[in-house]
Write a structure and sequence with these properties.
Structural class of chain B: alpha+beta
Mean pLDDT of chain A: 94
Number of strands of chain B: 8
Oligomer: heterodimer
Number of domains of chain A: 1
Strand content of chain B: 5-15%
Mean pLDDT of chain B: 90
Shape of chain B: globular
Distance between the termini of chain A: 79 Å
Largest interface: A-B, 24 and 20 residues
Helix content of chain A: 55-70%
Low-confidence stretches of chain A: none
Structural class of chain A: mainly alpha
Radius of gyration of chain B: 27 Å
Strand content of chain A: under 5%
Number of helices of chain B: 22
Order of helices and strands of chain A: HHHHHHHHHH
Distance between the termini of chain B: 30 Å
Low-confidence stretches of chain B: 1-14, 22-30, 502-512
Helix content of chain B: 40-55%
Number of helices of chain A: 10
Amino acid sequence: MIQLRAPLFITRHVLFALVAGGLGGIVFMFFLLEFDEFTSSNEFCTTCHSMTYAEVSYRQSPHYNSASGVRATCGDCHVSEGLIMATYDHAVGTKDLIKELFGPKYDDPVVNLLHLPEAAFAARAWFRRRDSATCKRCHTLEAIQGTRANTAAIHQEETEDKTCIDCHYNLVHRKVPDEKTFKREAWNRMVEEEFDLAPGAAAKLVAE
Amino acid sequence: MTLAVSLTRRPTRWSWRMLLALVLASTTAQAAKVELDPSNWGHPAGGDCVSCHEKASPGLAQQWHDSAHERAGVNCMDCHQAEASEPDAIEHEGQVIATIVSPKDCGRCHEKEFAEQQGSVHAEAYAIIAERVPALAHNLTGQAMQVAGCDQCHGSEVKVRGDGTLDPATWPNSGIGRINPDGSKGSCSSCHGRHAFSKAQAREPEACVRCHSGPDSPDKEIFEASKHGMLYVAERESMNLDADTWVAGQDYTAAPTCVSCHMGAAGKVPSTHDVGMRNVWSLNTPVSMRQYLIVLDDGSKLELSADQKPPRRGSEVEKADGTVAKVKVVAAPERRRAVMNLVCLECHSKTFTEGFMDQFDNVVELYNAKFGEPSSAIMAGLYERGLLTPLPFDEPLELTYWELWHDEGARARHGASMASPNHAWWEGMYLVGRNFYGRFLPEARTVAGDATGEVIDPLIDAGEHHAWLGQPQQANPILGYMPPPPPEAAPAEDAPIPPVPAAAEEPAGGSK
């Protein structure tokens, strides 16, 4: 008769630790799922005042208001799918929290707008690295019909070696030029005009 | 104008040289061929643009497919490519491009046309009026009208916003004096409709009518009402508009279009993209002036009134945009006229041509002496005495004066310049006269009040132009009234005394 016997090192304590650890792990996993879910919500993101500026343009965009009622949240676009990648993105994202706490005063609309281009460039690079994975959560290239005659054909025939973000940037948030053609001087001047600042004030704020 | 003639001796030598240079510059008297090696175009990314734009904007792509550019292998990127450092450069599908293709961009291949166009009255069309526009467009109406009206012909100063977009208050715009983000002036697509850039289309009078029509420059209407226009419509089939070269008298003879006289090749006269070069007069000013054409050392050009001493070669003059350049060549008005006459001579005799030009000059001189000079002097007198505020258009008289020279006066002068009797007279000088005597003078007298005797009367009493007002008894049946003939001599003693017009003894100026 074969006796199934636990190895000798499985003592009662070890067994207890394994069960507790396993249960703890499951609880932690559920916690992460909930945590990722919660920290991907519009409500969480906009608890930082600096993020409300991004919300303004978002609320004007079809990604917020669409006839079909489909609404993409911050996390739908900016946080990867899957527990591991979502958690990873949030871990990396804590640098935003650190910058919010110890960096420039992003709560100030002028400072926020002055630093917007760098944020946009980083976001676009992120989308490109992920092959626009979050876009594809909802959008299937093969299924794109569009409202104009050739939109489908363009998406079938003109997208080789391209990812969504290559063409579709400046879609939801305030328009920022591509990094290649971005001109800091012109951007600063625009901010100065918009907020009625003295010439040169923007450059000083950026340097701070 | 004798003053102008006497002053032209010095520049004549130089202007002859310029004329000679212009004639020699184009040995074959035809539009310049692009001399660059074809290796300069055919950008490798162009195929991708076409492939997508055939779907995204098929009309535009088809126009290009039908163009000489396509046949020569010139693609989208050849014209739209940009350096990232250019103010209006944008990223588009992996390429750095600019939406605006400026004359400087076209000039990469079309060097001769670019050189001629820069500094022309067309290229300066925005700079020339920039300072004056707000008084009319902004005050009388509003900024939106500068965008939709003035700037669509004169050009806008295109503003690139900090986010890389073109300010919609300044773009879209294909006005001919547009200030482009790259600093060049003008817009080739003003006349050369994109993206077909058809030679025939640009040679049509319709290429000009978007701007040269309407109350103040009814050149479209004038051309259509002239025998030139009449013949053009009747003989359009034989105009050879698609020809490779288009020399009046050689490639076509049926009729001229705007291009023929103002910029086209004719006989030995080469074509030019300096459209105002052959014009003697300023016709859209309160008083017309014969004008020198000054060529500056930076390649740009300038027009200066011939009632002033011409600038010396090498001296510095201020351009319309405020910058300064050195004078290279001065062409006297007579030389400019001589070039225009050479065009006429392809179809007309010398006596016919000179006779026509005399008729035209006489109209301009009549306008100047009878209406332009006195009305502007009266206005100056009223401003100087504080009887009018310096602010334009806040007093009715200012609108009256504006219409007198800017609308009606310009129409009369343009009408005479291009042989439309209707525009010279009914749409032009008749209205000038009606305005001058019926509105301008009465309103000016009201404004002048006690100063009428100083500000107005001396100008009206001087010379013979307004002397007819002093003869109120000169009857004429035009309005249907003729006074009864004077009574026979020695009436019978019992006959009643005939009613002698009471005003017979009244001095001159009865209608003042």
